Structures are given as structure tokens and as C-alpha cells.
Amino acid sequence: MASTDTLRCGPKNGGSPSMIVFLLHGLGADGNDLIDLAPHWGATVPDALFVAPHAPDPHDGAPFGRQWFSLMERTEAARLAGVAAARPVLDAMIDAECARAGLPASAVVLMGFSQGAMMALYTGLRRPRPPAGIMAYSGMLIGGVEGIVSRPPVLLVHGEVDEVVPAAASQQAESALRAAEVPVDSTFSPRLGHGIDDAGLSAGSLFLQRASAGITAA
């Protein structure tokens, strides 16, 4: 994917990055939707480069926006086929950004919202070299834990009254991940729908701080 299809911000300290945080947008959005998180979280991890790629395909359900995979058919099998097909694209993005920054794959955090969270979980848990962490906001664990090869720390964040992806999806993901011995923390926000609130941002800040410390200590 060309560099013009990727938005970047940071590091806030002006130096070379020691960590790359991928911000993976949801269905019908693009990289502009999440890049504004970079200044907020950059205050916590000033040595991080934030990367917000545009998903590879035009949204097939609207005249604008992008998608990682189609959701015209919302069966479990269709979702699994979608994330599996999109995974090599995201893997290539991760590898290219690591090469560009001169950092190992272990210095990556994958953050995603909604469909982007589905991609972060599916891809991150199957990377041969585990990322430093996965942050899944309003997402879903597609495909369960079958085929996972790495167990990075995971943060699940969800609004309890999400009308698009039910909070039960993250609750089920939490149970499945714990059973597979994946370290997982979760934050469920009362009265929050399909979005990110201050509690979710704060949980993300703490998670990124821990991930950065882990990278530095490695």
C-alpha cells in the first residue's frame, strides 16, 4: 500500500520512534477517523509513531469510506472468510512500517475500532512474532482462538449499550482469550454506545504505557 494511503503522527518527542501504534478504523471510515487519537495517546507514549492506514477496499455498502472486508453477508462464515482474506494485507502494512522505522515486529501495538478491532485481534494473535499488545474497541473475536500462535497482552473496550456490535461480543472474547491463556484486561462503559469515551481513552493510555515499558525492557 502506498504511503499516501497511510496517515502518520509522531513521535511527540521529535525523536526516532521506539514503538509503532497502528490505528485501524471501522467499516465505512478511513484512516482520518482515528488519527486524532495520536496527540492524546502521544502525551503518554511520546516515543511512539502512530500509523492510521486506510483499509484496502471501498465500502461496498455506501458511496464513501473504506472496508477491511465486506459485511454485506453477516454470517460467521462470511466474517471469518473476510478477516482471513484481509489479514495478509494488514500483515504487509505492519512489516512495511517496521522496515520503514527500523523497528522489530515486537515493537508494534495494534489498536482497532469495530471492524478494525476484529482485524487487530485476528491478525495480532496470528503473527509469528507477537506484537507488544492489541487494543480492541467495540470489536469481536472472529474465529475464536483456533490457529493463534502468539499471546500478546490484549485490552478489550466496549460500550455496554453498543447498538452495532453488542458488548457481549467482547465479553465472549474475554472468556475465550483467558481460556487460551492470553493476558487480557477489559473495560465496559455503562451508557456508551458504538464509540470511544474518556474511560476507554484512559484505559488505552495505561495499556500503551505498559506496552512501551515492555518494549524498552526487552
TrEMBL record:
Belongs to the AB hydrolase superfamily. AB hydrolase 2 family. Keywords: Hydrolase. Residues 18-209 form the Phospholipase/carboxylesterase/thioesterase domain. It comes from the Bacteria. Pfam families: Abhydrolase_2. This is Dienelactone hydrolase family protein. The keyword NADP does not apply. One of its GO terms (molecular function) is hydrolase activity.
